[in-house]
Design a protein that fits this description.
With about 240 residues, the chain is mostly helical. Helices cover about 70% and strands about 0% of the residues. It is built from nine helices and two strands; from the N terminus they run E-H-H-H-E-H-H-H-H-H-H. Strands 1-2 form a two-stranded antiparallel ribbon. Helix 3 runs antiparallel to helix 6 and helix 5 packs across helix 7. It is globular, with a radius of gyration of 18 Å.
């Protein structure tokens, strides 16, 4: 893969948020298998697709890091109380998010680096910080559930993009989509455990989708480069529903 002149070739670890670098004894088996296949394969990607992914992945990585922080903080907050079942489910999600973050970091390290990476990260960080500015924990998890539902739509779009379903990157995004679909259910259950109701869930649905679409519109051309109709994608996100 050759990078155009406006891109820096040196890989860079992408950080929007500081995360707890927990070393889990067992990470999901799919992560090891995917990494092995990535490093042993003749990885091919056109410069146009590489450029598009190099711009989109930071937005996704910031989301994974934000999720690690959200679920990790909630686990700590609930430590020692009677919510053992909920904590167990949240820990499973935290491990998933660490695996997603690690996989996307690996992918980012072999792609070109946008010269305006700082701006991309700043926009993403601002979006996720605004999501965290809520009236309480229940409302925050209402937003998390909606965001996870939107992430499923984004991942599905990329698996159906011009990359092709059998491309290693498409396989990664399909794996993340499967995990995030499960996260939607867990986040909703936790939201109700926290005393949330359907009205609060509905109030946050449109707000999250609108803010996310505003962020993603800055990279509409990147989606289009991958063969994804950005307007159709944004319409689906604005109408996303938690299953």
């Amino acid at each position: 893969m050759s990078a155009p002149p406006e891109y820096i070739k040196n890989p860079n670890t992408l950080r929007c948020f500081d995360i707890n670098e927990v070393q889990y004894s067992v990470m999901p088996s799919w992560l090891t298998s995917w990494q092995q296949e990535l490093y042993s394969s003749n990885f091919k990607l056109s410069s146009r697709h590489e450029e598009a992914l190099a711009r989109l992945i930071p937005l996704l990585l910031c989301g994974e890091q934000s999720a690690i922080h959200v679920f990790g903080s909630e686990i700590e907050r609930l430590r020692g109380n009677t919510w053992a079942k909920s904590v167990s489910l949240l820990k499973e999600i935290e491990i998933d998010e660490h695996a997603h973050e690690k996989a996307l970091q690996v992918l980012s390290s072999i792609l070109m680096e946008p010269t305006d990476l700082r701006n991309i990260k700043r926009n993403a960080r601002h979006f996720y910080l605004r999501l965290g500015n809520t009236a309480g924990v229940a409302e925050h998890f209402a937003q998390v559930a909606q965001l996870d539902a939107c992430v499923c739509i984004i991942m599905n779009a990329i698996t159906k993009s011009d990359l092709g379903r059998e491309h290693l990157i498409a396989k990664l995004f399909d794996r993340i989509k499967q995990d995030e679909a499960r996260h939607v259910s867990v986040s909703k259950k936790h939201f109700y455990y926290l005393g949330g109701n359907r009205i609060l869930l509905s109030e946050n649905k449109s707000s999250v989708s609108q803010k996310l679409v505003a962020l993603l519109r800055t990279e509409a051309n990147s989606f289009e480069t991958l063969g994804i109709d950005p307007d159709a994608l944004f319409s689906k996100l604005l109408n996303a529903r938690q299953q």
